Amino acid sequence: MTFNLQSHRKSLLAGILIPLMLSACGGPKMIAIHGESTVGLNRDAQGKPLSVVVHIYQLRSADAFNRMTMDALLAGKTEQDLLGNTLISSKELTMIPGKSVTDSETIGEETRYVGVVGFFRRPDPGYWRLLFDADAIKSRGLVFKAADCFLQPVTAKNIAIPGQSSQPPAECASKLR
């Protein structure tokens, strides 16, 4: 009887510990996505705020995302054409001036980077997109702000994209003309 009891305890312990250890591995993780927008979001020539579509990409590599241009996106090329086999998945959110949006997404095992693109009327040349390390997003979630003509990270620090200044612009008023 003692042998069977010890065997049962070992089985029970293994049944509890193995799933716990596996869940600690780098598997898929559900994260919160939160976007905040300013009241002056994406203003038109008359200063009227307009909504912005934001795409969130899960990526295997950052190379194609770093080379992507707004002109190529607006020329009608698909995300798959632009990002190729680095694209794992894409999610679309619509930001309304002065409002916030909250969603969730599962970050896959093979996701190394998360890219965020804002389709602004007159985008800032450096901050129409943001790039994040997926591990940082897994631990903190994805929180960003959409302002007049640019995106800004809130919780996780973004990875610098070639040609991007160290800080987003203070304002976009000069872009209205």
Automatic annotation (TrEMBL):
Keywords: Lipoprotein. Gene3D superfamilies: Type VI secretion system, lipoprotein SciN. PANTHER family: OUTER MEMBRANE LIPOPROTEIN, OUTER MEMBRANE LIPOPROTEIN-RELATED. This is Type VI secretion system lipoprotein TssJ. It comes from Aquitalea palustris.
